[in-house]
Design a protein that fits this description.
The protein is of the alpha+beta class. It has a domain at 28-103. It has two helices and five strands; from the N terminus they run βββββαα. A five-stranded antiparallel beta sheet has the order 1-2-3-4-5. Strand 1 and strand 2 (25-35) form a beta hairpin. The longest helix is centred in the C-terminal third of the chain and has 13 residues, at 91-103. 20% of the residues are buried. The structure holds zinc ion.
């Protein structure tokens, strides 16, 4: 067993509907707190810490089986939509997925 390489420092900033009543777009910061060194592994793929709203939340990407991906978020919206299995209705997960679709790879992104 060799030590896994340190995950690269990764910070993603994106605009999401803010926490106020008008949902004014506000910058949200996603910082990678864990990254599985083998992205094809089943289990937890990566976790992020989300800042920018009233509270700090945790987003996690899980691979329960090959070819399957499940998103989790600790915010109240994601819990409310628990029935959907994926927390894809929560703005944090939507924001993160949107960024990935744009840049293709979560590792390379200039902050700001
Ligand atoms: Zn969320």
């Amino acid at each position: 067993m060799t030590a896994a390489p340190e995950p690269p420092f990764t910070l993603i900033t994106t605009l999401l509907p803010g926490p106020d009543r008008k949902r004014t777009p506000a910058p949200y910061h996603f910082r990678v707190t864990y990254r599985n060194p083998d992205p094809a592994d089943c289990g937890c793929v990566a976790t992020w810490e989300v800042r920018g709203g009233r509270e700090e939340y945790q987003v996690a990407l899980e691979r329960p089986a090959p070819g399957e991906l499940v998103w989790h978020c600790s915010c109240p919206d994601a819990v409310y939509h628990e029935d959907y299995r994926n927390a894809h209705h929560c703005k944090h997960v939507q924001g993160l997925v949107g960024v990935f679709e744009t840049i293709g790879n979560p590792v390379r992104r200039r902050a700001g």
